Amino acid sequence: MRQIWIPKIGPPEVLQLKTAPDPTPGPDQVRISVRASGVNFADIMARLGLYPDAPRLPAVVGYEVSGIVDAVGSACNDLQVGDRVLALTNFQGYSDVVVVPASQTFQIPESISFEQAAALPVNYLTAWIMLFHFGNLQSKDLVLVHGAGGGVGLAALQICRLQGAAVIATANPDKHARLKKFGVLHCIDSQNKRFHHEVMQITQGTGVDLALDPKGGITNALSYKCLKPLGKLVLFGVSNLAPGKTRNIPAVLWNLLRMPAFRPIGLMNQNRSVCGVNLGRLWSQTEKLADMLKQILQKTSTGRLQPVVDQTFPLEHASRAHHYIQDRKNFGKVLLIP
After folding, report:
1. Do residues 309 and 38 touch, judged by C-beta distance below 8 A?
2. Confidence of residue 283 (pLDDT cuts 50, 70, 90)
3. Helices 286-301 and 121-128, axial angle in degrees (round to 10)
4. What's the pLDDT tens digit per position in 188-205?
5. What are the pLDDT digits (tens) for 319-338?
6. 48 near 325, Cβ under 8 Å?
7. How far apart are CA 282 and CA 286, in angstroms?
8. For the chain, percent helix, then strand, then coil, each to nearest 5?
9. Residues 6 or more apart whose Cβ sits within 8 Å of residue 187
10. What's the gap between Cα 138 and its chain centre?
């Protein structure tokens, strides 16, 4: 098999293509011949040495793949060789062959392409948990979505539209026109450090019901200020810790120090809540994740959800994929194609 390794902390150019023997599935595992692998910002944070859940370097990262089952373990009864599947991979996804637990592998219908399938697990599960599990999303809610042009952002926009909720989005200005086509009510420049004033102006001082924030740093505090009473802030990343393509310790410390401390009395008095999502620490919640993913697959197969694949790169060009995301060029999902 071929794999992309992170041998050491550094810029995208440190990524290396290596070969190794194909793995053999255990009794409760399946082996997948990969057709597409998802690239996520967590992979970039791992490359920069800023992702504490990543395996110790050198390592192969990657949280999601789609492909064809080419071997099954002796205890697997629901999956067969030749099945088209997507899978949640606890790393190792930057490979052309992976072995994963059968419980984290799901059949995909013919109506969903391998590229679309690989765009679903991380982005749509994260958005689903934030909006429904924590956010209790309701029709006519107003949601602030940061980084709306990214994979999670676009997933959240589609789910909000499906639920009848309105969205205020932050993104680079060159993405605003496309976001409006997804039904976004208002767009704000993601570099606007006073975005909370614009949100309050748009809402005539009332604020939003729900805010989704992947940035960290001072952005968390400003997003909290955008909430109306009974509003909810859901945190799902700290991308502000990685402003460049090499690790910047002063920037990391500066943004960590600017992250707010949410105190119980203040939360009670303001009738607001703050939640956090880290999909990588939910692998033990197999049944809950499976139920959510099955709902996402059903809505995708009927066209109600339509994952946006922005760009694909050959597996050996993984460094280009990392550059593309860090240059904020992507509008939707970026994939590696073995």
Report:
1. no
2. confident
3. 100
4. 999 999 999 999 999 999
5. 999 999 999 999 999 999 99
6. no
7. 8
8. 35, 25, 40
9. 148, 168, 169, 170, 171, 173, 175, 176, 179, 180
10. 22
